[in-house]
Amino acid sequence: TDTNGNNLLMLAARDGHAYTVALLLKFRASPLQRNLMGDSAPMLAALRGHREVVRAFIASGRPLEADGWTPLMYAAFEGHDGIVADLLAAGATIDARAPNQATPLMLAARNGHAKAVELLLAAGADPALTNDRGQSAAEWALENGNDQIATRIRSAAGKR
Question: What is the pLDDT of residue 66?
Fold first, then answer.
């Protein structure tokens, strides 16, 4: 473990070493263990855009989510569309809530990631949910200058 609380699995995931991750998972390394920042190995892989590493976690069949932030949130936040698609296909919690009650859809909308927004909406993300400040995904998009995304989310909300 390093000074940030990263174990070997976290370091391999963060740095994109899919083979090492798969091997460590085979030997029962825990994908849910968190470092001092509260990040798990799958979250670090999703954040950095390491799709093959995320796929190794999915292939392991082990749980990838716990309370709080999730790999899907990190992938949506960064606009890693392929990882968003993979996690959704693997059954990730689409409307998972961060400590501030943000959802993956809100995070993608806030940061202007139109493709991630489309993937999340197509998979059934709820556009009406709000964060702890009462803001919806469309409002977060508008607040950050992502008008077209806000319009798309409002359109989806009207069809529910």
Answer: 80
For every residue of 88-137, DSSP letters joined together read HHTT--TT---TT---HHHHHHHTT-HHHHHHHHHTT--TT-B-TTS-BH
* Sign of the torsion formed by the C-alpha atoms of 10, 12, 18 and 22: negative
Partners of 67 in the β-ladder: none
Q: Tokens standing for 151?
A: 């319009």
112's CB contacts (< 8 A; 6+ apart) are: 79, 141, 144, 145, 146, 149
Maximal CA-CA distance, the chain: 49
Q: Can you read off the two tokens belonging to residue 62?
A: 């082990």
pLDDT in tens, 6-47: 999 999 999 999 999 999 999 999 999 999 999 999 999 999
* pLDDT greater than 80 at residue 60: yes
The C-alpha atoms of residue 137 and residue 143 are separated, in whole angstroms, by: 10
Name the pTM for this structure.
0.94
